[in-house]
Specification:
This protein is α/β, with parallel strands linked by helices. The chain has two domains: 261 residues; 164 residues, no CATH class. The chain has a five-stranded parallel beta sheet. A two-stranded parallel ribbon has the order 6-7. α8 links the parallel β3 and β4. α1 packs across α2, α4 runs antiparallel to α5 and α11 packs across α13. It is elongated and about 75 Å long.
Length: 456
């Protein structure tokens, strides 16, 4: 009997809880950020849904002991779960910037400077107590940030209404980029405190700017922001941490740098550009056992072990936490309908295979599932395609779907355990037919059974 302890559906919000076993990586990257020689740019690479924002939140907690984007109660829970907090709070100040919110600004770097200006006073109170900084010096430095956003010569939008008025009244002129950098460096020194002490006396104070969702920006917005970082914020007291899908950012760069007639050379130049900007790129690891992560998202499905075994054996899930979490939400409402069958030892194995097949079709291949809902006999066409039947391969509905297994030379009905060669597809790609092995090895399915296992 399927026992569902709690009917809590998972959301897609970032979390401080270490669901992906990355705390060791958080510590290593956090220490590198705290002790590197600024200026330095880190790139945190991961596909959409890989948990980049959660990783950045965990980094912020590790470095400073706080994470304003997360509920206070979650901080305490994450600490109980093993996340170390505030390891480098004495010399690291973090500013958070959500790049996609400002992607349509004419100069996104202006919005970034405004965020630095508005977030730093929150830290300056603590700095004033610990570093004995005078209130006048702090206010002066903060005002210099406000003035510099105007001196860049770009009129910002709603986030800078006061700045727009100043532009209209004073006709602010642009300053050379090196003069702006000098002003910014001086302002940060004033706000951060001792940024020039010798290395042998311990790590220098530094501003760490975490830029999230850079890969969600349109290509022009992403390119303008990283250009602004390179031109204006390449400062000796500043470290940047960019959350990004490296491939998407390289494509954005390639669209805006001078092009050649060779697309491969353009792609190479874009990668070289990004390598020059980011001295360190960290690739977030894939979940190596997606079935185990799925099980962790479904603590109430105590008797669903046969389902996990099928998923694990055939590699049915993409190695993407967001997609696995969504699949868990589907199983939570789908599987309990078959609790009696799963409790029957004689029918359990067949039921588990059927549940996996139709849940995967529903979640990952809705273009096929839509046809099955109206024409259940279409399942036989899907099975023939999974077996590599040449006639089924010509069906246009399968265009764009990547097989996870190479075509089977013998398209006759397979015997149990039929070995199929892996096609070595992208482990996180969503449009891969990973349920192919289950379908190919299962044999024919009656139309009545197809109708019985439809999700909706």
């Amino acid at each position: 009997m399927i026992r569902l302890v709690r009917m809590r559906l998972h959301n897609d919000e970032p979390t401080l809880i270490d669901e992906l076993s990355r705390l060791d990586l958080v510590g290593r990257v956090g220490d590198d950020i705290a002790y590197c020689q600024p200026p330095h740019v880190f790139g945190i690479h991961g596909d959409w849904g890989s948990g980049k924002t959660s990783f950045l939140h965990q980094l912020q907690g590790y470095l400073t002991g706080s994470c304003p984007q997360q509920p206070q109660a979650l901080l305490a829970r994450a600490k109980r779960k093993g996340l170390r907090f505030g390891v480098h709070k004495d010399h690291v100040t973090v500013v958070w910037f959500e790049a996609w919110r400002y992607q349509h600004e004419q100069a996104p770097i202006v919005a970034l400077l405004q965020e630095i200006r508005t977030q730093l006073p929150w830290y300056s109170k603590a700095l004033e107590r610990t570093r004995k900084l005078g209130e006048v010096a702090i206010r002066s430095a903060l005002l210099s940030f406000e003035d510099l956003t105007k001196k860049i010569g770009i009129q910002a939008s709603e986030i800078q209404k006061a700045g727009e008025k100043w532009e209209q009244e004073h006709l602010a002129s642009t300053l050379p980029s090196h003069m702006i950098r000098e002003h910014l460096e001086h302002a940060l020194k004033t706000l951060l405190g001792d940024t020039d002490k010798p290395d042998e006396d311990g790590p220098r104070r530094r501003l760490v700017v975490m830029v999230d969702d850079l890969d969600r920006c349109e290509s022009g917005g992403a390119y303008k922001l990283i250009e602004g970082i390179k031109i204006y914020l390449n400062l000796p007291n500043c470290v940047f941490v960019l959350g990004m899908n490296q491939r998407i950012i390289e494509a954005a760069v390639a669209a805006h740098i001078p092009k050649t007639e060779d697309p491969r050379l353009n792609a190479f130049r874009a990668r070289e550009y990004l390598d020059k900007l980011c001295q360190t790129i960290v690739h977030l690891p894939f979940p190596r056992r997606p079935a185990d992560l799925l099980k962790g998202y479904l603590p109430g499905l105590k008797d669903a072990e046969p389902i996990y075994q099928v998923i694990d054996r055939f590699g049915c899930l993409p190695a993407n936490p967001r997609k696995i979490k969504a699949f868990a939400n589907l199983l939570r409402r789908y599987v309990p309908r078959f609790s009696e069958i799963l409790a029957d030892a004689g029918r359990r194995d067949t039921c588990a295979h059927m549940l996996v097949i139709f849940a995967c079709l529903y979640q990952f291949h809705p273009e096929l599932y839509r046809i099955l809902e109206v024409q259940p006999r279409f399942y036989e066409e899907v099975r023939r395609w999974a077996l590599g039947d040449p006639a089924a391969m010509q069906h246009p509905v399968f265009e764009g779907i990547t097989m996870s297994l190479r075509q089977v030379q013998n398209t006759a009905a397979p015997t149990p355990g039929l070995p199929l060669e892996s096609a070595y597809v992208d482990p996180a790609e969503g449009n891969v037919f990973r349920v192919q092995g289950v379908i190919a090895g299962f044999g024919e399915v009656q139309t009545s059974e197809v109708e019985k296992y439809l999700v909706s």
